[in-house]
Amino acid sequence: MTPKLHSLVRTVTGYRRAIVGFSAGVDSTLVAFVANKMLGKDALIVLAKTETITQDDIALGRELAATYKFNYREIEYNELDIENYASNPVNRCYFCKHELYTRLGQLAREHNVPFILDGANVDDMGDYRPGRNAAQELEIRSPLIDASMTKLDVREAAEYYGLPNYDKPSAPCLSSRIPYGTPIDRVSLERIAQAELLIRQRGFTNVRVRHYDSTAKIEVDKQDIGRLQLFFGDIQTRLREIGYHTVVIDQEGFRSGKLNQAILNK
Predict the structure, then answer these.
(1) In what order do the strands lie in the sheet with 215-220?
(2) pTM
(3) pLDDT at residue 256 in the model
(4) What is the Cα 88 distance to its own chain's centre?
C-alpha cells in the first residue's frame, strides 16, 4: 500500500459515517470501495440516474455494488429540469453539481450522516471545473484530493485492490460533448450516447462525439485515427441513420476537456 493510499484509507476511516457520490468511474469507485471496506453499512453509496449518464455506466455501477456488497441506492431526477442547465452556460457544471449535492445533502439529513464524499482528484484542480465551486459551497469532502492522489495514483490504487474498472477511460457526462451556449435536449444526449456506443463497439477505447447540431466530430486516440478511417464509411452511414447529417474525424485526436480550452485560454 502506497503512502497516498494509506492516507486515503485513514481519511475515509475518520469520517465514520458518510455518503459517497458514485458514478462508476474509477475515482468514485475507489472512494466507494474504501468507504465500504472501512465503514461497512455506515457508508451509503449513491448513484444518480439522470439523462447524462450512459446505460453502460449505470449497469457497471450496479454490478460493482453487487460484487462488493455496497450499501447502495440510486436516486433519479431530470437534469434538464435544473434551472440554468439546459441553456448550457459556461458554468453549467456548477448547476448540475449543486443539484446533485443538494439531493445528497437531503439524504444525509434523513439518515443522520455527517459527511458527503466525492471522487475529485488532484488532476481535476487543473481543469475548468465550476462544479468544484458547488462542492466547496456545500462542504463536500474530496478524500482523493486530501490524500494528494492524481488520476495515475487512483488507477494504481484501484488496480492494487483488483477493481475491474481500474483502467476505465474517463467518462464525463454526455452534456460535455455539446459546446457551451448550444441548448441541451434529450434528443441530442441520446444521439451522442448512441453514436459513441457504435464507435466503441468497433474496439475504440477513448471516444468522444462532439455534437455541433447536425454535425458529429469524432475524437479517438491519435494513434487510432488510422484505424478509425478504415471503418469510417460504415460509421458515417450509421451516424447519419441516427440523425447526423455531417460526420467528420478530428485529426488532432482525443483530448479530454477540449471544449473547455477556449475558457481556460481567456
Answers:
(1) 207-212, 215-220, 246-249
(2) 0.91
(3) 73
(4) 17
